[in-house]
Amino acid sequence: xxxxxxxxxxxxxxxxxxxxxxxxxxxxxxxxxxxxxxxxxxxxxxxxxxxxxxxxxxxxxxxxxxxxxxxxxxxxxxxxxxxxxxxxxxxxxxxxxxxxxxxxxxxxxxxxxxxxxxxxxxxxxxxxxxxxxxxxxxxxxxxxxxxxxxxxxxxxxxxxxxxxxxxxxxxxxxxxxxxxxxxxxxxxxxxxxxxxxxxxxxxxxxxxxxxxxxxxxxxxxxxxxxxxxxxxxxxxxxxxxxxxxx
Length: 246
Fold this sequence. Notes:
Elements: H1 6-29, H2 33-37, H3 42-47, H4 53-88, E1 92-93, E2 101-105, E3 108-115, H5 123-141, E4 149-155, E5 164-165, E6 169-173, H6 175-182, H7 187-190, H8 192-195, H9 199-225, H10 234-242
């Protein structure tokens, strides 16, 4: 294992963080009001006595953005984790379906699936991951039957008090995950500084676009789903969201 230098991480972040911000901005600018309206529960807005177009628009937009950004940044962090592991253990991005990272250490082959946080999926999604691990192990052992393979579900943040999942795989979260792929116990803290590279500048650009989308969607919602007196036309909104196609 090679010792990780923080300068290597800083260079990678400075070179690649713009990709995250670009995807985040593009996702916002290509949104369609009808698309996000069709995915939200209109009854909830009525039950909460939401009275204005802007309240509804901001609520559905913020929920969409939060979920979408988690996915975009999770994918970006996966790339960072693979890069860090390549510097310390010589790891590589796996070509096996469902596996993100492979590396060798102490006569073991580690296969890693990387997720953002510990609560990333339901029981069926977890079972799918286990199935992917089992398939990957069979695939790798076709060329080397004696290969000692350890399956890992790595999570970029959070905690899990029981990493050993009945010997089937291990779940390493937060500090434990970053230490596992790098050998550095403090890496999870050290990452904070480089990840803030040009964050203020990029967020100012993003906030400008966000304000425009809020204004555009609010105007569009009012035109489509408000009565002449300005009240929300709830029957029309519910019909748009839930009426079956003729």
